[in-house]
Amino acid sequence: MTRLTRTAAPLLLLAALALAGCSTAAEPTPSPTPTQASADGCDQVTVVVDFGVLDEPVLESCAAAGAATDVLAEAGVTTEGTVDYGDQVVCRVNGEPAADETVTIEGQTPFTESCQTLNAVAYWALWVKTAAGAEWEYAQEGVNTLQLEAGQSVGLVYTPGTESTPPQG
């Protein structure tokens, strides 16, 4: 086993456990209109999606408090799980990375995401902020069980390698 594999394995397992919850509906449903933020920011839950190397703009929205799956849906964010781990590992967010898209991570062989299992090269990390002025923290549970209150934030970041950085929003 290489040093990278021994180092990456525990982090990837943690990512798999922390990234629960995805909708695998065959037909996408129309996204609801996100809740509008108050004049000085979001008075509910701030939702941030940072696509990183996938070259999509960062999405930031405001949605009513509740279960993370409902908050994401209200913000117009869809997720898809993997074949091996189902909804416990987020594989795609708003269809990214697309099944026919070649993903290039510096220092790695380019790949297409099959959503078969946990990807060791790149993954979607789930982050939370417990209050407006708080620091982002790596989620300790997945989107299926995470409950969000007004004033909190949730973020999904497409993470290359084994070190995730918090959302930029």
CATH architecture: Beta Complex
If helices are DSSP runs of H or I spanning 4 or more residues, what is the number of helices? Answer: 2
Order of helices and strands: HEEEHEEEEEEEE
Rg over C-alpha atoms, rounded to the nearest angstrom: 15 Å
Report on this model:
It is a single chain. The strands form four sheets. Strands 2-1-11-8-9 form a five-stranded mixed sheet, with helices on one face. Strands 3-10 form a two-stranded antiparallel ribbon. The longest helix is centred in the first third of the chain and has 16 residues, at 3-18. With 169 residues, it is α+β, with helices and mostly antiparallel strands. The chain contains two helices and eleven strands. The chain starts with a helix and ends in a 9-residue tail after the last strand. 14% of the residues lie in helices and 24% in strands.
List the helices and strands and how they pair.
Elements: H1 3-18, E1 45-50, E2 59-63, E3 66-67, H2 68-74, E4 79-80, E5 92-93, E6 102-103, E7 111-112, E8 122-129, E9 137-138, E10 147-148, E11 153-160
Parallel strand pairs: 1-11
Antiparallel strand pairs: 1-2, 3-10, 4-5, 6-7, 8-9, 8-11
